[in-house]
Amino acid sequence: MEMVGMDWEQGSLLNELTQGKDLAKELQIHLNPPASTETRLFLVEKILCSYEKALSMLNSGALSGMLEAQPSAANSTLDSSDLKDISKKRKIMSTWTKRVRVCSGSSPDVPLDDGYSWRKYGQKVILGTNHPRGYYRCTHRHSQGCVATKQVQRSDEDPTLFEVTYRGRHTCMRSSRLAATAAAAVATAPAVEEYPKEKPELPEGVVLNFETELQVKAESLDSKEEIFPSFAFPYASAVLEEVGNDIFPESMVDNNLMGSFSPAFISPATSESNYFSVSPCDLGSFGRRQSSESDLAEIISGPLASVPNSPIGDFDFTVLLDTSFSFGNLDCLS
DNA sequence: TTAATTTGACCTTT
DNA sequence: AAAGGTCAAATTAA
After folding, report:
1. What is the value of pTM for the model shown?
2. Where are the extended beta strands (E) located within chain A?
């Protein structure tokens, strides 16, 4: 596999997190029906070890660099002369990537529904990839000035896997936003062929989306890898929720091991809720996030700061460990 | 007829 | 210069 845009550290990190994920899945199997205590303890031990390693990687390298980034870049670093500069605008937009798996058999080219309505505006063959990259922007770009965009790249190694890179927050109104939850889907794993292009909006803004597996990835800025730790927990509902006007990855900062993984974190309290669902069949996910300096500013000055009492700021979320996530040669897995 | 997609040209970034 | 990203006219779908 060609580890496009990935350095050694990322690879190791992926390995560790993936291993943790696999172990957790194994543990899940052993829990029901319960295995011997020894087996469970051993697996838990290994899981913790994996995460420990991943954490130390994150804390030693990328993360520390990120935490040093200058504040309020989003507001103050732009010269008036730069305001028209698209590239600079681009830099102040938060960017994150999630991996979306189309579970079973699956129809290949169905645009994965993430609760928003997108309009394709381009497609490009990317060097070193077998599949073209699709470029989408929010349907309400013009009507509401929503600047959110996303790129969808099918994985070479795993055709059922899509890497979806989001850029910019949605500023469009809720009518265009569909929440996704898989809380009720854990038991059932529907076929993927049934991805509608637009899902009907449910009263609470909740929509079921079973196949997505969430992974937050980040982009490097100025060749600095900046990674946010985020972790997943087994046996929580397959829901990752974003509340507020920010994107969820920020919520993971400083909450490496937050213990808040109650099964029902769906709180459609605000009209800006945004749910990310995680595959119920591939329980789990993990995330890491890279961020530009200005992204960090957003993080620092964002909801987390404004809602200090909340364990994770404005964000309540639950993530599951994914075990089927594949990322090339993960030969360290056993 | 309107809206979405396709696709080659054009622009930006590296 | 090459690759990635966006635009927009032509085409297709609703």
Report:
1. 0.45
2. 95-101, 118-124, 133-138, 149-154, 161-167, 179-181, 206-208, 215-216, 239-242, 274-277, 286-287
